[in-house]
Here is the input.
Amino acid sequence: MKTRSLIAHLAVPLTSALFTTLASHVRADVITDWNQRSAQIVGEARIGTPPAVRVMALVQTAAYEAAREARRAPSAPPHAVDAAVAGAHRAALTQLLPAQRAAIDAAVQAALAATPDDAPRAEHLAAGERAAQRVLASRTGEMPGGADTYRPHTTPGAYVPTTTLAALQWPQRRPWLLQRADQFRPGPPPALNSARWAADYNEMKSVGGRDSKQRSAEQTDVGRFWDHSLPAIYHGVVRSVALQPGRDVLANARLFAVVAQSMDDALIAVMDAKYHHNFWRPVTAIRNGDLDGHDGTERDASWAPLIDTPMHPEYPCAHCILAGTVATVLNAEGRKGPLPVLSTTSATLPGVVRRWNSPDDFMHEVAQARIYGGVHYRKSTEVGMAMGQRIGEWALQRSAAAEQ
Here is the structure.
């Protein structure tokens, strides 16, 4: 059956081709190996979560295109996919993160150490680099130009905090899969005179504070674990599925491409919603509880959250939208066969591995963690999960349409 490339349909203008099944002689973990290497390189670049998610989307897309083309090549040697995927990573990562060149080159050398240094390897390495360049070229212009026009609210002479807000221009980016940034923009947060607002406020005040006596030690660990937001923590969950015995490289390459693109779109969408609604964070609300007009929200002038508050508006929860998106894609994988226990690690709670029996369990823990951490109200987590699930379903529909 003739099919179109997932990425050709969704993002990259490549030609239609037969989606072939990987032969058994190719290692089933070349994509997962490179995913782990890339996530580490991106983390070491210290570029912030939204830019890091964007880099991983570009890299995983390039890896998928390179692997797919290598398997189409006539008389391809057993190491063709290994070389092509290495070339794609080298070209994409070097262009996106030039300061990490030494680490990138070392990763390529390690990845190809077991393959013969011959003409076919050089050919497929170069082909992978060309695939990456096509992916990068297809995304030219997706980042908005122009200067940052944000102006903090102030009166002349009055001090305001000077930390720069995060991802202000993200809502103007061109999505991979979504039709537009506000496609799934949610309605407003709870009104300040509502019972829901008071309930969320008081829950946050009780369990999200740095010195909370209502939060257990386990809940504190969960909050700190999910303080980390770089791609590695989410891609680790995906690798739990990709490393199952019997999966092939193209299936894994496609899985990571869909996850990475939909995560990038999720951040575009959530930043659109955040800056549209511009809702205050718990640390601001609770220290100003006497100004919200609700008799049920008592001020605490010294309240502080368990973890540092991210530098963008509160509503809806960005971690929750990412978790909802990833969980939805993984649930679709589960319809093809049993899923393993999911797991991942976190740089903000070293040495700890957290595990879940299902994608939904993972998603709900992420949401709860943002309440324990003192940075998101419950309504925001619910809306974020639902928004992520809608984006994940949209991504799955688009990928299915690409194969018709």
Notes: Strands lie at 342-345, 353-356.
